[in-house]
Each structure stands twice: as structure tokens, then as C-alpha cells.
Amino acid sequence: MRPVTLTAIGYGATIPNSNYTEGQKRLMAMRASKLDAYRALAEQVYGVRITSNSTIAGLAAQHDSFRAYVDAYIRGAKIVTVTPMADGNYETVLELELNEQFYQTVNQPQSQPIPQQQGSLERPPKAEAPITVATAQNCGGKTGTTTGCGNAANFYHAE
């Protein structure tokens, strides 16, 4: 199977009338355009899940709403260009090559381990970190994990 190259374009706008400096506004717009391009790329690869809700009363739409969800793990995408546009906005173009490894991964049964390689889109394995319960206590103005002091509040800590 021949590799297929996907291209996605993302846009980011500057925040007008904010307390950020011009440099911060520019960097935030660049970052927004990059994230928008990744979202567009993920939509091409994995699709979009749409949920909607409509309320009808007296044969007329009273309320109509929808949400779009994308949950994806993209690895191996390359930034092709980041272009400044009018009004301080930015456009980012990303490319991702879907190679034979990608197609093998997609067609594998779920019970087999998935190899991790550059340019593939498989999800990373979830870490099975042990969770321990620790106690934070206020002991005479000092916070610690010693026992025997009052007012304990539990929190979780993954090691």
C-alpha cells in the first residue's frame, strides 16, 4: 500500500484589548493556529463524534444544539508553514504521512500489542501507576505527612 499524505490547515486569532504584550498575543495566536491544525488533522484521521439535542413544542423548534468531539492521538505530523495573516492572525499547515505501518495497526485485532513507530497513529498504552493514599495534616502551623495531628485531609498521589 502506498503512503498517503494528509494536509490540515489551522487558524489562530489574536486577542484584542487584552493585558498581554504584543509578543504574547502573537505567540498565543501561533499556538492556537497549530492546535486548530492538529484538530483538523485528527478529524480527517479519526472522524468527528457529533451529539445533538432538539426540543420541539407546538410543531416549532424551541431549542436546538449540538457538540462536536474529537479524541485522538497524533504522532509524526510535520509543520509545513506558519504564515502571519492580516490583523495579527496566523495560519498553520500540517502534514502527516500515513504509511503501511498505520494501515497494519488499524487492521490489527485489539488483543495484539500495537508497535510504536514514527508516523503511526496508535494510542499509547495507559500507564498503570500504583495509587497510594497519603494524608496532609496541619500540625501546629506546619503541613506534613506525619500521623497524630488533627484536621487531616486525604489526597491521592500516583507514584
Sequence of secondary-structure elements = EHEEEEHEEE
Largest sheet: 3 strands, antiparallel
Task: Please tell me the total number of domains.
Answer: 2
Q: What is the strand tally?
A: 8
Strand order of the largest sheet: 1-5-4
Organism: Sulfurimicrobium lacus
Domain Lipoprotein LPP20-like: 21-96
Protein name: Lipoprotein LPP20-like domain-containing protein
InterPro entries: LPP20-like_dom
Question: How does this model look, in words?
Answer:
This protein has 159 residues and is of the alpha+beta class. It folds into two domains: 4-107; 128-159, no CATH class. It is built from two helices and eight strands. The strands form three sheets. It has a three-stranded antiparallel sheet with strand order 1-5-4. Strand 2 (49-57) and strand 3 (60-69) form a beta hairpin. The longest helix is centred in the first third of the chain and has 25 residues, at 22-46. The protein is flat and about 50 Å long.
Summarize this structure briefly.
This protein is α+β, with helices and mostly antiparallel strands.
Question: Which key terms come to mind for this protein?
Answer:
Lipoprotein LPP20-like domain-containing protein; 2 helices; 159 residues; alpha+beta; three-stranded antiparallel β-sheet; LPP20-like_dom; 21% helix; 2 domains; single chain
